[in-house]
């Protein structure tokens, strides 16, 4: 489901606990590694956050680095992948052209209005034949056919999302990256409850779907509050990874 832009400096202390923890990170890392070419020697994890996924991107011969713009997040990540983190804007990486074999962006593109710029920067730092791996269509991943989804689905605006698979593919093509393999993985611990969805709704998490209309918020909150089992988690989301390869 769409999220408001969080203060990641403040979120660092409890981010992992509220985002599925190690099980979700392990599923994400395993899926990313399936898309990293066998001969790759370097991988940059963009917006690495606390490094929970980064430290699990382990394969013989593969050197993994993390970059994030939030200082507090990066402090945590530095403890997990010492000597291999850098504070950086994903649009302006402190790296030379054609310097990496792979770049991954897990749970990043849906958060920013400049996803195309992130793709362009990744293309710049990739060597010929390098691969960009990214999660796309995050909102759709949370539509698991539950009763919560039945309430929210008429208001979803997935086509306008910054991480839409179509716009991301077009941005990649504009910089010489061609579609390659994809993968899916489970967001363990991320299944929604009606009560928590109402809280997020009131906090503005889905405001972009209906321009924050208070009448719509009230109607959706009432419909969600009427659902049974208010604290029972519905099925976990299934996230989608896509990859693009630079022409060698």
Key terms:
disordered N terminus; Rossmann fold; seven-stranded mixed β-sheet; about 250 residues; alpha/beta; globular
Question: SSE layout and pairings?
Answer:
Elements: H1 8-11, H2 21-35, E1 42-46, E2 63-68, H3 71-80, E3 85-87, E4 100-105, H4 115-125, E5 126-136, H5 138-141, H6 147-152, H7 165-174, E6 177-186, H8 194-203, H9 207-210, H10 214-225, E7 238-246
Parallel strand pairs: 1-2, 1-4, 2-3, 4-5
Antiparallel strand pairs: 5-7, 6-7
Helix pairs in contact: 4-7, 8-10
Give a brief description.
By secondary structure, this protein is α/β, with parallel strands linked by helices. The protein has helices spanning 8-11, 21-35, 71-80, 115-125, 138-141, 147-152, 165-174, 194-203, 207-210, 214-225; strands at 42-46, 63-68, 85-87, 100-105, 126-136, 177-186, 238-246.
What does this structure look like?
The protein is α/β, with parallel strands linked by helices. It has one domain (8-142, 160-190, 238-246): Rossmann fold (3-Layer(aba) Sandwich), CATH 3.40.50. It has ten helices and seven strands. It has helices spanning 8-11, 21-35, 71-80, 115-125, 138-141, 147-152, 165-174, 194-203, 207-210, 214-225, and strands spanning 42-46, 63-68, 85-87, 100-105, 126-136, 177-186, 238-246. It has a seven-stranded mixed beta sheet, sandwiched between helices. The longest helix is centred in the first third of the chain and has 15 residues, at 21-35. The chain starts with 7 loop residues before the first helix and ends with a strand.
